Amino acid sequence: MKTIKRAFRMHRIFVIQELKRMMEYKGDFIVGIIGFLLGQFFNLLFIWIIFSQIPNLVGWTLEQIVFIYGFSLIPKGLDHLLFDNLWGIGHFIVRKGDFDKYLTRPINPLFHVMVEKLQIDALGELIMGIALICIVLPSLVIEWSFIKIVMILIVIPFATLIYTGIKIATAAIAFWTKRSGNITYMFYMVNDFSKYPINIYNNFVKTIITYIIPFAFTAFYPAYYILTGENPLFNIGVTVLIAIVIMSIGIFIWNRGIKAYESAGS
Amino acid sequence: MIYAEHLKKEFKKVIKEPGLKGSIKALFKPKKEIVTAVDDINFHVSKGEILGFIGPNGAGKSTVIKMLTGILTPTSGECRINGQIPQNNRQKYVKEIGVVFGQRTQLWWDLPLTETYNVLKEIYEVSDENFKKRMAFLNEVLELEGFIKSPVRTLSLGQRMRADIAASLLHSPKVLFLDEPTIGLDVVVKDNIRNAIMEINKEEQTTVILTTHDISDIELLCKRIVMIDKGKNVFDGDLHELKSKYGQIRELHFETTTKDISNVLAYKEHFNFIDDDISVNVDGNLVNVRFNSSVVPVSEMLKYTLQKIDINDISVKDADIEEIVRRLYKQGV
Fold it and tell me: How far off is chain B from A128, nearest CA to CA, in Å?
């Protein structure tokens, strides 16, 4: 309990530090916000144009597709917003020996790396995801229940952890290879498949995004449950299970990696 | 306090032939070689001691420091600091140590210096009261006031180094590891940093391990030194011992009116010196002779010199540590 409290406190402190850092360069900060809002607006417009050309897809209505797409952006955006610094591990933190710093501080290095930076751009994904859901929600027939809402609240953090776990596992490869950013990128890009209903794909893609790089559990399966209320054991339960398994694998590789870390000459 | 026993660290290295072709070849058929950076290092440091840890570039100093601070895991052997093995419970262990790598910084680059200290206070869970006291103390010994409100990116190297040392001391560590804390600094800042290290060592009995290439750091701060070369222990003892063991080098300085002295004075032939044991430098009528006094005693040298030429002024100097270290680095032991 004490550790969790401390983790939240440290997280808050790092986030505040990061916000201060961004505001240190005011011009850049303001232009960044304007650019970001513009970008989101055009993104939304673009997606709407594309979706309105597809009235339905293998039995899915436009609204349902948009809902799944919107839902997929939430776990992705959360992970992107909070834990984006993991990319740095595979790109330069290990290669340049900057990881030393995390090892000489009395907080868990993985936690430290994860929460040190805040990726504000990701708010765009979150806003867009929520906006898309809000737009189609009135025209969708969804049965709401207390249990369903609880399920949604549970599944979102776990779906986020699927992303985070995959990033941890692939970033940690850098402890041996010095650089693994492209491996992370390769895995990460598979997530594009998860934004659409899974039955539009052939079996090969289906198998990959369900069992191998299980991004389908970050979006399609939970969204499917929300839309239909069917099979919560699989759609929600397995999502949670997969998140736990992937995080465990990630942390296992990470901890092994720290032992293999070689720093850099100085 | 600090024990290093049979410390060994090996790195795997991929051998590449030069050029793009070599790189492509290494990509498919990597040739691996094991490089032993640190090989059976042993030493021990008592509480409150300042240990100078020296050796030429690439000797393995930083690798040893990184094993002692828990950053690297030794291939074999063990180090214990205050009864703890760094790698076993790293998070608990690092609360008791402070680390400064002169070539890196742990300060928040874009923010005013105070912000770094405020976050470190939280990271190390320093109480408000202790933090205040500590900052006042560090302000005093490291003179931070002048730039504590400036963003770190605007600090000079000297200011940054002082700020980094303060950052490493915020939580009152029992052991302080300084890896080249005076690198690239001017004389005044060096003095300031040395005084700060001495003061902290005196006030709080902080054990300090210091690596440096500046021999004055060693002469001013350390009673004891450990020298390593190519990953192996070369010397372990106090400065005095180093001088008496390797310091038979003396210097003879004199001013002469005799012309063309290199023909008149033939030390090498007369005393049968070998190459490394003697060197003569002539600059106008000033002459500087450096020789090994274990081969020929100082009195003999003086007698011979005075017999051969007219001397205005003469002095004999002890070898300084720098000279000894230079010789040791050059030839090994």
Answer: 31
